[in-house]
Design goal:
This protein has 248 residues and is of the alpha/beta class. The protein has a single domain, classed as Rossmann fold (3-Layer(aba) Sandwich), CATH 3.40.50.880. It is built from seven helices and 13 strands. Helix 2 packs across helix 3 and helix 3 crosses helix 4. The protein is globular.
């Protein structure tokens, strides 16, 4: 029996600041390959490459990765500012309708960092452009110095809803995670259920209410060292189980 396929959403990148490519971090590929039992397939964030229906036909599930550009604020009726940073309208054009279509059809989806924010915006939510400027909030951005290991190390706890989807998957009501994001949820979207919070009450874990399939997202980066991390591993294993059920 052929393995199922999990599409990993790519990001626009320039090699030598001039040659355009669509790229995915190796850690995302390894997490899918090592833990889900599926074949990882890089999906270009280019709407002219293929229709949403074609992508769903080709893949049994999707991982919506992190990325440096942010979701454009026009998707919730605001004008962009310097605080919103850079944008990737092509990725927005692929991911937002793809998330809604996958939820409607029961295709398993897992959102990470920007993907977490895309889940919220796809269902009508809004984002803070710079959550560290909100009184009482911590700086969730990637540390500017240090090795990759140091930048991706655990930085804060996440409090989970008892008996929620994440508590069931992780077998705990509090876990330690990394933190490498500047934006975050301001107003939650319709059907978006927040199940995890940082100590400063920043939303960190969500699921889509009433989704017929696996539809969860986290604000941190579970793909980093996923095979050995006690929080990351069960998340990807659960994605794999959902994809195999769907494919079967």
């Amino acid at each position: 029996m052929a393995k199922p396929v999990i599409g990993i959403i790519g990001n626009a990148h320039l090699i030598n600041d001039e040659y355009a490519v669509q790229a995915v971090g190796v850690s995302n590929v390894e997490a899918v390959a090592d833990l889900t039992g599926a074949i990882p397939l890089i999906v270009p964030s280019l709407p002219r490459v293929g229709a949403i229906a074609d992508l769903m036909e080709a893949c049994d599930g999707f991982v919506f990765t992190g990325g440096r550009p942010n979701v454009h604020p026009s998707h919730w009726g605001e004008e962009p500012t310097e605080k919103h940073g850079a944008f990737d309208p092509d990725r927005d054009a692929v991911t937002l309708p793809l998330i809604r279509a996958c939820v409607a059809s029961g295709v398993p989806i897992f959102g990470i960092c920007r993907g977490f924010q895309e889940f919220n915006v796809a269902f009508g939510g809004t984002l803070h452009p710079e959550i560290r400027e909100i009184p009482g909030r911590m700086n969730h951005r990637m540390p500017p110095n240090g090795t990759l290991e140091e930048k991706f190390e655990h930085r804060h706890a996440v409090r989970l809803t008892p008996d929620g989807a994440f508590a069931r998957i992780l077998g705990a009501t509090e876990v330690m995670v990394n933190s490498l994001h500047g934006q975050g949820i301001r107003d939650k979207g319709d059907r978006v259920v927040i199940e995890g919070w940082a100590p400063d009450e920043t939303p960190e874990a969500i699921h889509i209410e009433g989704a017929p399939g696996f539809a969860i997202a986290v604000q941190w980066h579970p793909e980093w060292r996923a095979a050995t991390d006690p929080v990351s591993r069960p998340l990807f294993l659960s994605l794999g189980e959902a994809v195999r059920r769907r494919a079967g």
